[in-house]
Amino acid sequence: MSIPKKGGKRANTASEKSKGLEGFVGPKSTTRNPRVKVVIQFMEANLERTISLEELADAPNLSRSYFCTLFRTETGLTPGEYLRRLRMEKASRLLATTLLSIKQIMAMVGYTSNFVRHFRRYFDCTPSEYRERAYNAPIAQSNQKPEQ
After folding, report:
1. Residue of 119, 144, 106, 111 lying closest to 23 (CA atoms)
2. Are the C-beta atoms of 71 and 59 separated by less than 8 Å?
3. What is the DSSP code string of 2-71?
4. Which residues contact 56 (CB under 8 A, 6 or more apart)?
5. Domain presence at residue 15
6. From CA 17, how far away is CA 3, in angstroms rounded?
7. Residue 34's domain spans which residues?
């Protein structure tokens, strides 16, 4: 059994690891605090651009320090880590469902550098490997014969 890294829940079985697609669990917005919900909605609407901590704290009209404490208490993650997870979740969806280039996807989720490093941390593979697995998974499943 693998130990989860910061990035999310990891695959536990050999078959899950070989697929590499089911192992990641993105952030869930289960907070009841309306101020934190406002910030999460702001993050989701602005994934393609750089967002400062000041901007995030200004959205619900909170001080930076109180905002960071409140956000972490409500979500279990720092605002930066939560934003990275949202970006990785969107990047993985785009890689699996579109033919956009990795550079285009990188720009769409707000990265100018470190994209591959962060992606590998979350998914244990490069974006290219992830896309290849995503496109080959349906083919492999359709080629399997049902057991009788």
Report:
1. 119
2. no
3. PPPBTTBPPP-SHHHHHH-SSS----------HHHHHHHHHHHHTTTS---HHHHHHTTT--HHHHHHHH
4. 39, 42, 43, 67, 71, 79
5. no
6. 13
7. 29-143
pTM value? 0.74
Q: What is d(CA 65, CA 53) in angstroms, rounded to the nearest whole number?
A: 10
The CATH number of the domain holding residue 86 is: 1.10.10.60
Structural domains in the chain (count): 1
Structural domain includes residue 14: no
Amino acid symbol at 27:
P
Q: Is 12 a member of any domain?
A: no
The 3-state DSSP class for residue 117 equals helix
For residue 122, tell me if it sits in a domain.
yes
| Half-sphere exposure of residue 127: CA atoms within 13 angstroms, side-chain side | 25
**In contact, 17 and 23? CB cutoff 8 Å:** yes
Backbone angles phi and psi of 80, in degrees to 5 = -65, -45
Report pLDDT digits (tens) over 16-72: 433 444 444 445 557 789 999 999 999 999 999 999 999 999 999 999 999 999 999
